[in-house]
Amino acid sequence: MKRARERHGKTRAYVADAMGHSVEWAKGIENDRFKMPSLPKLLRLAHVLGVEDLTELTGDDRIAAATYTKAEHTALPRIRHALTRYELRPADREPEPANVLTARTRQAWKLWHAKGDHRTAIVALLPGLLDDTKHSARLLEGADRRRAQVALAEAYHLAQLFLSFQPAPDLVYLTGDRAMAAAQDADSPRAIAAAAWYMNHVHRDAGEAAEARVDLAEQAVALIPRGDDPEHISRRGLLYLAVALSYAKTGQQGDAWRYWDKADAAAKELGTTPTRG
């Protein structure tokens, strides 16, 4: 534990705080005064330290931390098929109107946030939603096409959330990249900001060079118009929060608190901004 901590430039205080324990606990683990943590806590410790192989902490036979963290949902193959299936010939059907796609996407998000087994419930909608939004985004024109691209980006965000609980990192990154491409094709700063937020979140959660997504978030912030629009203020604040969390994940406290203050300022500004009816 000490070697891993020092290799990543993290203090005992940082590790202890991330684990919800005292500095004495961290010191006791390192000095062999406490027994081996339970498996869930050991996995959490590996995550905090950026350790992929638990043998670095246990000294036992090779154990990949990812083996124990995520169980495959029975519907994962269906989602994988929906994401990796390509229609090289135009389908013989009319594209759905952009406003219908927007309503379907909104309904899917409500379902995701509903009580119960929302992951299983979303699987019933997601493949069809992805197919229809991709189809419309290819065939519609002008403003309707851009609105379909925004709906497509949001459908990919849903897929990202489902996949972030699955042992399928390749699909997580695939959906993140496609969501950003759809948002850029829509030429929508709000959609780009949302895509940057999810991209930052996914990379941070996976421990994949979280600081590399900071630049992406800052670029997205620069695209958001200034003013008193609550949507713009909230998305700007979310991106500042994403940067703060990324810096916190890598133990860069000064930068983390600096961006936390920016996010807090945006939240306070949003709290005093009248909503538009």
From TrEMBL:
Sequence ranges assigned to domain HTH cro/C1-type in this UniProt record: 1-57
Concerning InterPro entries, the annotation shows: Cro/C1-type_HTH (IPR001387), Lambda_DNA-bd_dom_sf (IPR010982)
> Which residues fall in a coiled-coil region?
none
Q: What is this protein called?
A: Helix-turn-helix transcriptional regulator
Q: What is the lineage of its organism?
A: Bacteria, Bacillati, Actinomycetota, Actinomycetes, Kitasatosporales
